[in-house]
Every structure is written in C-alpha cells, then in structure tokens.
Amino acid sequence: MARHARVVVDHVWKKFRGGERQDSLRDLIPAITSRMLGRGKPSAELGERDFWALQDVAFEVYDGEALGIIGPNGAGKSTMLKVLNRILRPTRGRVIVRGRAAALIEVAAGFHPDLTGRENVFLQGAIMGMRREEMRRKLDSIIDFAGVERFIDTPVKRYSNGMNARLGFAIAAHLEPDVLLIDEVLSVGDMAFQEKCVVRMKEFKRNGVAIVFISHNMQAVSDLCDRAIHLKSSVRAEGSVSDVIGSYLLTAQTSADSGIEQEISITRVDLQTLDGVTVLDAPPGTPLRVWVDYRVNAPIEDVHFGLILQRSTDALVVYDAGFHGHELGFERFEPGQTFRIAYDVTANVTRGQYHFHCHVFHNATSRFVARANPAAHLRVDEVRTYAGIADLDARATVYHSTSNSHPSSGAANAVATFG
Fold first, then answer.
1. Are 269 and 358 a contacting pair, CB within 8 Å?
2. Domain extents for the chain?
3. How far, in Å, CA of 106 to CA of 168, rounded?
4. Residue 219: is its pLDDT beyond 60?
5. Measured by CB atoms within 10 angstroms of the end CB, which terminus of the chain is less buried, N or C?
6. What is the layout of strands, in order, in the sheet containing 303-311?
7. For the structural domain made of 5-21+45-246, what CATH number should be given?
C-alpha cells in the first residue's frame, strides 16, 4: 500500500529584510513603491538588507512518521515551522499540509494571565480549533495530564513557568490532529512529565499522525523520529537520524578544528564490536573497539593519543583517556609512516546519543597535531533508566521472608530478579 504524504514542502524559499523600519519620508516612499511594483512577483534577487532564511527546502512527511529537523541557531528551523503552520507565507515554492494540523509552538503563549487555569483551557482550546463540547469532554483528562489539579481554579499568573508549560502541552496533547508540528516543547516540565510527553508523541505516531519535530535536543530527536534533516537555510543532509546527527555534529566541529591537522593525520575511524561488526547502536555494557588509522606527515616525537566519549545532546565529556606514545612503543614518527590503533572500551553508559573524539597531542608545544571530532557515533538503547550517565547495571530482587527484618544473603529464597 502506497504511503500518504501528509506534509509536502515543495522547494520553499523564504526571504526576510533586516531592519525594515523607515525613519523618514525619504526612506518610506521608495519602500512602498518597491512593494507595490513587486506585489505578486517575489524576486529571486536579494536587496542590500535582504537575506534568505530558507533556500530551496524540500521534503515530505508521511502518515505515522516523525521527521526531526536539527541545526544551529539561526538556521531557519522556526521559520520552517511557521511556514508549515501558515503563520508565514513562502517567498517561492509551496507547502501542502493535508488534514487537521496542530502546532505545539510556545505552548503557553495563548494564556491570559488573569484567567484561571480552567478558563485558559477553554481559551487555548478555542485558539487551537477545538469545539467547546470537545473541551468539556477532555477537561478532566487535560487537568490530570498536566498535574495541576490543586491549582486549576487559580489565575495562571500565579503559576510557575513549568506549570504553565505543562498545562499548555496537556491541552495540545489532547487534540486529534492529522499533522503535529512541534518546536522544543518536549523540554517542558520535570523528567517524569517529559517521559509522559514522549509517550503521547509515540501514541500519535501509532495512530498515523505525521509529526515534524524541531529541537536542539539530539536525544529527543533520536528517541522520537524516524528520519531527520540537517537544516542550515538549505537542507544539508537528509536520512536516518544517526547519519543526520553525525552530519550536523561534523559540520559544527569543522570550523573549530580547521587547520589543526599538521604532523599527523587521522585518516579513518571505525567503531566495531569485538568480532569485527560495524556498529551504530548497542545496549549498555557492550564491549566495543574503536579502530583509528594514522598517517605521519612530518617528523615528530613526544605525543600522546587521546580518546574521548561525549554525549551528543549536550557535549558532556563522559570519558577522556590518553596513551603516551612511549606506552604504545613509539619513540619517534617519520614521514610516510602509517599505523592503526585499536582502542577497546565498554559502553557502560545509559541510553542516549554519543560520539567519540580522537586526537593526537604534542606535549612539548601543548598543541593538537590531529583531531577527529566526531570520529564515530554510538546510540545506546535501553528503557530502564530515566536520568544519569553511568550504567551501574542495577538489579532488583524480590524476597519473601516470615520475619520483619530485612533478609540477609541466604536468609530467604529469592522469588524473582529484574534488571
């Protein structure tokens, strides 16, 4: 059966003008004349203060599919979402959104501060296109989802930012859309509420809703999305989530690392299991081998080789190891020399998106002579943990004892062990 494209972005361009304010009649008259003459004929040319926020962006999203859009600040992500939500019109190209669309953008933006939470539920629901009867039917569920039962009849100006965001998301989460447009809203609330949000988004997917999710949170994109695009005004990469996150991280690092490769080059990096199978995903505790190939370009000595593991979501350094050349049997490196180092590690980390960073550091001059970052990507999949970074391999064992004291080892029979 052919898939149904719910969202079609057909070569969209969006132009903005910086500083459109006119401070004098001399500036205002030419601006009005220009707009009148150009009405209905969007120009492909950029004026002195014009810039393209979006350039030739094209993609489709199908029923039951979630597309993640990632990129740096100012890349056009929010502009793309506003074009999809018809807040903005494209300068060129077209956008088709089939069916009822719901946008989770600044989820509490429609609240009136002097109205109670209950009153704002109906106000926000009306803004989102929900009928009053539908709101009445879903009211209890919305309040329960947001966890604001005690304060539902309190003016929202007395709510914390987190309470406002939770109530706004709860309203939006009870829509019955065909298309869902999401902008960073999965960062609202505490960890338990975020988990609840993710569960609801996945439920939308199972029900055939097409989702466009914009976020800086690589882990959230990795958990929710089937595909991703790397947007920086134009589409820089499109495909699997792991590949696109890799493209984004590589691009983000390129400027920082450009020009540092000197006496030694890192020519190739492979992440494999111990039996030689290339790996992108693994459960916690998996033994892994990082193969790194090096080429010597100029004579050098007194270097050490570094291997760093970082969490891609926030660049947290999880592990940083260094090996001096002497430890590995190297005294001096000569031009033309090539060699390979295998770094054996155990992925004792919790669920998340990670990347390895490899480098060569010259001790005498305190500088990097080679660096690959990101060198390899790893997604760790598991459902046991909710926070933290280290995998402690926690297990829970149930005991039944006739006494009220805690059973010591061997004092009672273990009924079941979980973990």
1. yes
2. 5-21+45-246, 261-380
3. 8
4. yes
5. N
6. 281-282, 367-380, 352-362, 303-311, 316-324
7. 3.40.50.300
| Superfamily of domain 261-380 in the CATH hierarchy | abc- transporter (atp binding component) like domain (2.70.50.60)
Residue 241, class by beta-carbon neighbours within 10 Å (0-12 exposed, 13-18 middle, 19+ buried)?
buried
Provide the sign of the torsion angle of the four alpha carbons 159, 165, 171, 174, taken in this order.
Answer: negative
Residue 196 pLDDT greater than 70, yes or no: yes
Burial readout 152-165 (b: 16 or more C-beta within 10 A, e: otherwise): beebbeebeeebbb
Q: Please name every residue paired with 265 in a beta bridge, in sequence order, or none if there are none.
A: 295
Highest mean pLDDT pick, 228-237, 347-356, 374-383: 228-237
* Residue 301 phi, psi dihedral angles, 5° rounding: -145, 175
Q: What angle do CA 343, 344, 345 make, to 5 degrees?
A: 115
First vs last C-alpha separation in the chain: 40
Cβ-based burial of 100 (10 A; exposed 0-12, middle 13-18, buried ≥19): middle
Triad 262, 264, 268: Cα angle to 5°: 115
Pairing relation of β-strands 281-282 and 286-296? unpaired
Is the bond into 30 cis (omega within 30 degrees of 0)? no
